[in-house]
Specification:
- Helix content is about 60%, strand content about 5%.
- It contains 9 helices and 2 strands; from the N terminus they run αααββαααααα.
- The chain is mostly helical.
Length: about 220
Amino acid sequence: MATKRRKLGNPLALAVMVLLTERPMHPYEIAQTLRSRGKDTSLKINYGSLYTVVQNLEKYGFVEVAEVQRQGNRPERTLYGITDAGREEATEWLSDLLAVPAREFPIFEAALSLMGAVHPDEVARLLAERLKTLEVHAASARGGLAKLYETLPRIFLVESEYQLHMAEAQAEWLRGFLRELESGALDGVEQWRRFHETGEVPQDVKDLEARHPEK
């Protein structure tokens, strides 16, 4: 099942709608609430872009002005509330994201696909550096979660759990890959090394290009 094409694709828009189901808020309060709840570890929250997101949500009828507050000489503050259409959109969008795996394009995956441009010994060094950083971050995250479990229900920490498990899974894969790369057991590593030492393009690459010539 494919996800539905939506009028807004920024996950921050979804977060805003979900938050506004609790009560009307002004954009600054939305940003502060998301940060205080640790959502900035899962979402890119920029105060300036948040205003644009709210304006777009209003444009499509997903949120509306609920109140304009005036306090003395202070600038007025516009509070936004979610509409019925916004509730429906948020529920459908979130349901799609939870149920349907999406093809994502992580930058590390892109780097792995292009790593042949770097000598295998240097790749091994760089990946070992990455592994060390991941292990430090994972250890810190485990400690942080242990503290948070003491004060917060687990339901509020599931995205942090997921991030930790993804980091640990990546670290485990890196350990295995590095063992193969450093021992020479990785299939194709000798051709890779020879390419950097002689400039000779591996025959497998030539064969692949011959099977898929540029049209």
